[in-house]
Amino acid sequence: MQGKTLLATTESAADRVIVVSLMKSGTHLVQELMVALGYGIYGQSRIPAEIRPVFDAETRRDITGAVLGAAEAERLAAGDPAAYDKAVAKAWDAYGWSWQLRFGLPLVNRYGMAKVNEELVERAVRRTAATGFADTPAGVCWVLPELDIKKLDGAFLTEWTQQGEPRIVFMYRDPRDVVLSMVNFLSGKTAQGYGNFSEFQVFNRILTSKASLEEKLEYALTDPSFPGAGDFERSLWLLNHPNVCKVSFEELVGAKGGGSDEMQQQAVARVCEFLGFDSSHPDLGGNLFRRDSFSFFKGQIGSWRESFTPRLEPLVESRLAEVINRYGYK
Length: 330
Known about the structure:
By secondary structure, the chain is of the alpha/beta class. It contains 17 helices and 5 strands. It has helices spanning 27-36, 57-68, 70-77, 81-102, 107-111, 113-116, 119-128, 154-163, 175-186, 198-208, 213-222, 231-234, 236-240, 249-252, 261-275, 304-307, 313-326; strands at 16-21, 40-43, 140-144, 167-172, 244-248. It has a 5-stranded parallel sheet with strand order 2-3-1-4-5. Helix 2 (57-68) crosses helix 3, helix 2 (57-68) crosses helix 4 and helix 4 (81-102) packs across helix 7 (119-128). The radius of gyration is 20 Å and the shape is globular.
């Protein structure tokens, strides 16, 4: 399948990218970079219409055919344009859900069994189960909040290992800032709410019942089911794999978020080179930090220092010390 034209200056530019950005690690930063490179974005978070993939006529038929069959796709393409547009949108939605299932994402927990069992999604799963990721539309960056290797479709792992595609970028952040950011997010402090995952409603109610930030943080550090708990441990394979491009929030956020523009430029260049783009392209890092992005609150490096009280230090040591060390934070 073919998709939108990328900002490539080399023949080796990646047609397809997977970004694994742990929840509350500054996903908007790497997402903005992918948009600047010309990718359309597919993901679970609220993706604005202007950065979603735009497909050409051939790709639209391919997507519809992959889900409904080639004959049905041709029939729809030859009919009413408005009806065809709706069919393509529904087919792409189902196609995306089928790949989310193959990625092992906990969709039933987040959206309910009814969504996963929709007829069109089930059809997409059946019809595309034997296809590879190389058959997905080009020009798309798939943004995922996790990628648990024990839940991944083995055929995808084999394809990636043997072909080196798709290229995978892994983004993370200081675990202490992640916990603080998640607490603020689920407490409803962000302008656009706390998202549409079903479990978030439960934790919002728990957190808003706590009187102080210290109590909220204490709870977040002690409940193993709290959103994000265990994500760093489950992602160690990404951190250690030589064919994964690693980038941190602290590198990519730039001076506006308490980092440095020089470090940001270096991080942008590293990601660009990994994906096969000209790393010297101007202004790629200039607009990554956006206060209007979904779930944005403060977006600063080291905010945890102002919020983690001495009473929380033993909990931080027992729960986070290992991942703090493994991910290079001291």
